[in-house]
Amino acid sequence: MNDRNPTFAELDRDGAIEEAAAKAGINRSQFLRRSAFAGGGLIIGGLPIAFSLAQGTSKGDVDILNYALTLEYLEAAFYKEANSGSALSGKLATFAEVVGAHEDAHVEALKKALGSAAVAEPKFDFKGTTSDSKMFAATAMVLEDTGVRAYQGAAGLIKATAILEAAISIHPVEARHASWIAHIIADGGSSPSPAPEAFNPAADMETILAEVAATGFISTESGATPSSPSSGTPSVAG
Amino acid sequence: MSNPPDPRAIDRVDPDGVLREGAEALQSARVGQTRSQLFRRGGVLAGAGLAVGAIPIGFAIGQGGLPGGDIKILNYALTLEYLEAAFYAEAIKKGELKGEEAMFAEVVGAHETTHVEALKKVLGGKAVKAPKVDFKDATGKGKFLATAIVLEDTGVSAYQGQAPLIETTEVLATAGAILAVEARHAAWARDIAGDNPAPDAFEMPMDMQAVLDAVEATGFLKG
């Protein structure tokens, strides 16, 4: 890999990480029980469940949805920037177009579900990673692997069944993306493996936000962390 | 900050530490702990995939006390994993695959065998037996990849369909860990075949009956 590739392991210590982690801490409740949630089974806007927030949606679930939305904003903006440039061709261009459309769909579904409780889109700075095909591919793999770990880590904390169903309809799609880009990078070789482990690792919100903060891709903190409305019931979308 | 996972529990099932990293990931998913060092791709890929018989920590905890519904789901998952594992074992044994298809079969076959062993270990005496299978010519060069795509896509939909029904947190965490891997397999096979690796923005679940009907329709299961 190119030394200039941004990796989430490059921790910076400017305080942004701590701030994000502190905000994530509000959701470190343990062993939340998932409760039954009326209204599964419909298809709204391509999302295979009735996925608008309903009365009684827990603050924890709203936080998780906004956390997912923030990651999806990040991914969608990354592919949008890549697709608007001219660095990609062939398999990488196809990948960026298909996956970018998926991330856009995830953003729209999550925004629709959250309604007025949705966090605003942050400003991004991808630091030139979308204008070089190798850096694009390496960054895309990191982003997708991160998405898989994030959804997987959050799933067990979701209370409402309908929201869990939504999360696990996105989780395997992120895994497909991650596998796909690894296979493109491997180019017939064995590394990186599209499926490196028998059990995919998970990560919690605090970890993921720290990794995202370390990239420096989020250039404004506005809306970038799951600091959802702290009072009142989220409005019902759609 | 959070406490680290209890290392003794891991050592019980993973004395060599081979699966430690993956196990800690599952543990962190369960109790919300930070394991930032887990953010390394590929460092344990061969070891974890081939650690047959070792099971993630979060998964072992429920042994002996699982609800009946979870046992049913685990046995259903085990049946699908038996089918997948047998498929790849036969394809490898037959020896007709070359290049990327052969590599795919080796890696994915090892994963499915790991899933089988993990599920059997958790279920203990309640585990269903491996079904008799007949893959006809599907494990040969001409049909292997198309069959693998169907099996893996079905596996994704099957785990996705069951996850919301799972009662035990540890079982849900492991189902999620396997769900993502089946999705990686499916995308990998599709990309080798020149199909769209990720055809939809949202994955569609299948319920147990739909999956079992689809499996029965293949004729791969005998008795």
Strand arrangement, major sheet of chain B: 1-2
SS strand fraction of chain A: under 5%
Radius of gyration of chain A: 17 Å
Ends distance of chain B: 53 Å
How many helices of chain B does DSSP assign?
Answer: 9
Total individual domains of chain B? 1
Key structural traits:
heterodimer; A: about 240 residues; mainly alpha; disordered N terminus; disordered C terminus; B: about 220 residues; Ferritin; two-stranded antiparallel ribbon; about 60% helix; about 0% strand
Describe the structure.
Chain A is mainly α. Chain A has helices at 16-24, 59-84, 90-114, 133-155, 161-186, 205-215. In chain A, α2 (59-84) packs antiparallel against α3 (90-114) and α2 runs antiparallel to α4 (133-155). Chain A starts with 15 loop residues before the first helix and ends in a 23-residue tail after the last helix. Chain B has 223 residues and is mostly helical. Chain B has one domain: Ferritin (Up-down Bundle), CATH 1.20.1260.10. Chain B has 9 helices and 2 strands, in the order ααααααβαααβ. A two-stranded antiparallel ribbon of chain B has the order 1-2. In chain B, α5 runs antiparallel to α7 (144-162). The radius of gyration of chain B is 17 Å and the shape is globular. Residues 1-63 of chain B have low confidence and may be disordered. The chains are: A mainly alpha (238), B mainly alpha (223). Chains A and B meet through α3, α4, α5 and α6 of A and α2, α3, α6 and α8 of B.
TL;DR?
The complex is a heterodimer of chains A (238) and B (223). Chain A is an all-alpha fold and 238 residues long.
Layout of secondary structure:
The complex is a heterodimer of chains A (238) and B (223).
Chain A: H1 16-24, H2 59-84, H3 90-114, H4 133-155, H5 161-186, H6 205-215
Chain B: H1 7-13, H2 20-31, H3 45-50, H4 57-60, H5 68-94, H6 99-123, E1 132-133, H7 144-162, H8 169-193, H9 208-218, E2 221-222
Antiparallel strand pairs in B: 1-2
Helix pairs in contact in B: 2-8, 5-6, 5-7, 6-8, 7-8
